[in-house]
């Protein structure tokens, strides 16, 4: 009998460890399985909440019961096995939660995407493998196996007739590939700068002072005419030449300034010099 009692006591202790999966509530929980949200609208026990010793145990028991009800709802859904694991596909959530950040803006289109959209060009799905007639096997379009296949295929490269026979075709091919990669990277950076509306500095020779503006050319023409013996009075005009407005001979000659443009002190000094002269 003692052995039987010991076995019964052990089974009773094990049963006490595992609580039942059935939970009774006065009001059913509002459960949104899509977001794994369970809202308990039942009233709390105010007496147990006020007691410091009983509060934690009461809240833990309440949380355990609500979690059990949520899990029961989840296991009511159809299950499936994926990679030796039983999973459940959750439905779409019904609770609308506010966003912490604004909705992301759509990415701006690149030059090629805008061109394809204007011309109605659609992307066609390509196969990841292609048949190589030379190797007589399927070769991937990219990746390390593609590089290995190219290396196997190009063990010998024929030199074209229009190329120097001493040219290293392997080096030339590598340079062409690096140039192509650099060009693609430059185009990618241009697309990023264009999307962020950043002005890209022009590449090439800097703008020099060799090309003068229209006003500079007009001033140079007037100065050249005034440099003659007649100060440009008898100088012939060029075809379609416009007269320089507001520019006289005295303004063009260095040191020649009209008296009305001089300050009052300079006028007095000029009169004194003329008297003494």
From TrEMBL:
Residues forming coiled coils: none
Q: What is this protein called?
A: Ribosome biogenesis regulatory protein
Which Pfam families does the entry mention?
A: RRS1
PANTHER family per record:
RIBOSOME BIOGENESIS REGULATORY PROTEIN (PTHR17602), RIBOSOME BIOGENESIS REGULATORY PROTEIN HOMOLOG (PTHR17602:SF4)
Q: Which GO terms describe its cellular component?
A: nucleolus; preribosome, large subunit precursor
Q: Where in the cell is it found?
A: Nucleus
Where is it mainly found?
Answer: nucleus
Q: Which domain of life does this protein belong to? A: Eukaryota
């Amino acid at each position: 009998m003692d052995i039987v009692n010991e076995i019964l006591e052990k089974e009773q202790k094990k049963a006490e460890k595992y609580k039942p999966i059935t939970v009774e509530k006065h009001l059913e929980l509002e459960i949104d399985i899509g977001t794994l949200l369970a809202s308990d609208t039942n009233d709390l026990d105010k007496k147990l909440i006020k007691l410091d010793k009983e509060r934690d145990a009461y809240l833990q028991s309440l949380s355990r019961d609500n979690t059990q009800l949520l899990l029961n709802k989840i296991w009511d859904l159809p299950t499936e096995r994926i990679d030796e694991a039983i999973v459940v596909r959750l439905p779409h959530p019904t609770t609308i939660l506010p966003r912490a950040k604004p909705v992301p803006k759509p990415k701006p289109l690149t030059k090629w995407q805008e061109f394809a959209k204007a011309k109605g060009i659609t992307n066609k799905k390509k196969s990841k493998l292609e048949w190589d007639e030379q190797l007589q096997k399927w070769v991937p379009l990219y990746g390390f196996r593609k590089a290995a296949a190219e290396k196997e295929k190009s063990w010998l490269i024929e030199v074209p007739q229009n190329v120097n026979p001493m040219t290293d075709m392997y080096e030339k091919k590598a340079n062409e590939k690096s140039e192509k990669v650099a060009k693609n990277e430059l185009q990618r950076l241009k697309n990023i700068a264009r999307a962020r509306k950043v002005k890209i500095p022009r590449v090439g020779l800097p703008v020099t002072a060799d090309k003068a503006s229209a006003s500079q050319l007009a001033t140079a023409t007037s100065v050249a005419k005034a440099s003659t013996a007649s100060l440009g009075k008898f100088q012939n005009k060029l075809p379609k030449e416009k007269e320089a407005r507001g520019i006289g001979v005295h303004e063009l000659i260095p040191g020649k300034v009209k008296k009305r443009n001089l300050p009052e002190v300079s006028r007095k000094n000029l009169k004194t010099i003329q008297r003494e002269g």
